[in-house]
Protein 1
Amino acid sequence: MSDEAALDALMVVMEAAFDPHWREAWTRAQVRDSLEMPSTMLLLADGEARPIRSGEASGFVLSRQALDEEELLLIAVRPQDRGRGLARRIMERYLDQVRRRGVRRIFLEMRANNPAHALYRRCGFTPIGTRSGYYRTAQGEAIDAITFARHL
């Protein structure tokens, strides 16, 4: 899959998966800039959590590695593919990939009221810190950020 086709597939999922109220979706330019860095990894997955090289994606993980640590930047699944364990299977595939790359610890940050916290906990992540009022909704409401970590 070309870089532009991968970016197109990711953006289709991004636009469907993230509610504009929470202001979590990245712009195409932000994703493109991130993907241009050699430390950024993209896993596009189909409806069975298999990596894809062409066609329509059901979900993705975008992350960035620094030495033996990784930051999970975004994980998303299209709304029509939710409720079947796809996010968990994509996360498991992602965790397998980072282990093979020698990653020892993964971090992620999310808004405090994000229901994805259940997924992260099931996948072995634990909260390690809070940033008060870090996120802002479209209406300006402040929401805390929770930082999670997982040792591999």
Protein 2
Amino acid sequence: METAPSLIENITSTLMFPLAFLFVLSVVVFFHELGHFLVARWCGVTVKAFSIGFGREIWGFYDRHGTRWRLAWIPLGGYVKFLDDESAASTPSAEALRTMTDEERKGAFHAKPVWQRAAVVAAGPIANFILAVVIFSVMLAIYGVTTLEPRIGKVVPGSPAEAAGFLPGDLVEKIQGKEINDFAELQHIVSTHPAEALEFVIERAGKPVVLVVKPRLQEHEDAISGKVTRPVIGIMSAAGAERLHRRVGPVEAVGLAVDRTAMIVTGTLGYVADVIRGRQKADQLGGPIRIAEVSGQVAKFGIQPLLHLIAVISVSVGLINLFPVPLLDGGHLMFYAIEAIRRQPLSERTQEIGFRIGLAIVLMLMVFATFNDLPILKKWLSALG
């Protein structure tokens, strides 16, 4: 029979996943839509609604400009709807534009110059990147930077590193010509270069030695993400490796935050490229279920890791939205670039076809991501049973 303390602990643990998920996703979505909203207002666009979530409204209010701020039941995104939008995806409504008065047309999004429309659309992803930089900057300014000397403590038998000639005690100085000062930098480079020969310069007995190693894909259990497949070479850090902690000023913190944000962008793009080229498996692509799982796991470690997760997801959301897929922000920007070159917008029919194709792509990706997340869902159901 379950005791009261263990019952309370189970209930608390169960509630942590949805609450952490709602917190993480709501913050990311809010700042994304806030970027669209603020630049739209600056451009004189009339905003009808600012929504966090989709579907039926839970709570809302009107501001002095007539915008309906709303919280909806389905917490899987959000939208800013303009006066002449046909849908939450900001597809133009030709009928609405035709029936508007001259005064109303002044606030119509689709009647604005192409550069203003592009600025409004780009503002959402940019806001995501800014949010990440702000979070990383604050965390770095408060907690400082900790680096771990990139000294090898163990070489896994039968690994690519052993075959390449790595030995315990080797100090990694450079990889592909890039100076390495932290073991985490080494891990990042290896994880983003699957099946690619990497040139290491190491210090051994006071002398430089050049070794070439090719990472291989290996499945392992991650404490947060579950089973994942990642490139590895088979080395571990030394137990006695020097760990350095230093404080950083506000300016340096911002610079390091930008570097971290850029690292996430390049890592994500590299992973997507490797999936397309067949170098990596697509099992790391996840949807809301995985975000909920990771959010709940990370929340157990406190507010600092949770804020870090918000920054990482914010970068990912901003980057994904810039992909040139109709329906996403990048798709709108692609249409506006074509319009700027042609000096006239694409026909309504062409745009409609594009949005339908975009919707199909987005839906297929959602189904694929959900399929990847089924093991997590099964774990949840078995825990409940």
Protein 3
Amino acid sequence: MALRNIDFDALRSLRDRHGAAFPRDRVLFREGDTSAEFYVILQGSVELSLKDKSTGNKTVLHVAQAGAFFGEMSCFSGLPRSATATAAEDSVLLFFNQDTAIQLLRASPRFALGVIQTLCDRIRAANERIATLAESAGGPSGSAAAPPPGQRAMPAGLAQTAAAAARAARPQETREVPTAEYDRGTLWAKTVECPVGQTRFGALNVRPDALSVKSRDTDFREVYGGPNPLWYLVYVCPDCRYAAYPDDFLGPSAEEIEHLRASTSERTVIGGSCDFAGTRALADGVTAYQLAIASYAMRAENPQRLGGLYHRLAWLHREAGETEAELAALRQAVAEYTRAAGASSVADMTLLYTIGELHLRLGDSSNAIQFFARTSQHPDFKRLPDIQRLCRDRWAAARAGPRPSAS
């Protein structure tokens, strides 16, 4: 069932730390497994099913759509999985173990309330189905059971509606762009259709089991031993160069699509000769983020999303050893993040810490100390020990004096 009263954009912001892309037919867990992850669907859908032990036949209980969560019973109770979960299509999921799930619930009372409300919805729906079955036990066989939970549209997801509107107004036939050869051991391709240019192409993603995190910087950049998923985290249309995150690629409104079409020539200049139809290099990843920044500038204002794009662009420049370009991107990131924090009645604690950290990396100890102080005064500060430790360490570094860092 879709999460009620949840800030879906806030969940999307957790994708880099707690998310991964899963190809169609990937089994997430099987009935009887003792795994305990709790999942939230950002994009795609997941089939929950049971297998008859005597016949081996599968019964599909429910297909959970974007915005739904599942796996909470095993996560919080420790009980074995009661069903098998399989990606019904290429999907992007958040997943949490018990510790990180509890931290999330503690840090976000709004999220916790949404989970409680959704579980209440499920209980009510189950009671209605039981009542319906009881009433029909001695009556006509045509009585319909209540629909399974989770059929409401996802909160962010007017994506399908926007995509349908774009298809209705498309100026030309869809063009197919073949996917170039790639290493299927580390990557997988998802077929998507650009809502701006009506081009169908294969967008590559790094397989979750190919990821290997070696270390993590104090501004949350992860250093990978294998392929870097950041190179592929932005989908890019090979024709019109429209670029966006996977869970938001189909999301522009009809008005935004018109703005994006009108600015195609600007993105063509930024994209240059880059070919996004196959395996990417670091330079391709940099260009993809530059295209995403140009694309989101044509869409509804979202300073936190723009801040995140500039921040990740800075990470790629750091990976390339391009210090000046990294610092320039960090300046843009801190400006957008600060706008986002100012627009929020209760700014996210991790966002406040991140702003302080970026000021410190830019050599601005005064502003760094100011935001570290705001972080420490946040009502959720004691609930996130990792942020506590980082904040105290970096606050001490800020007091030691200005020392811009690119590592």
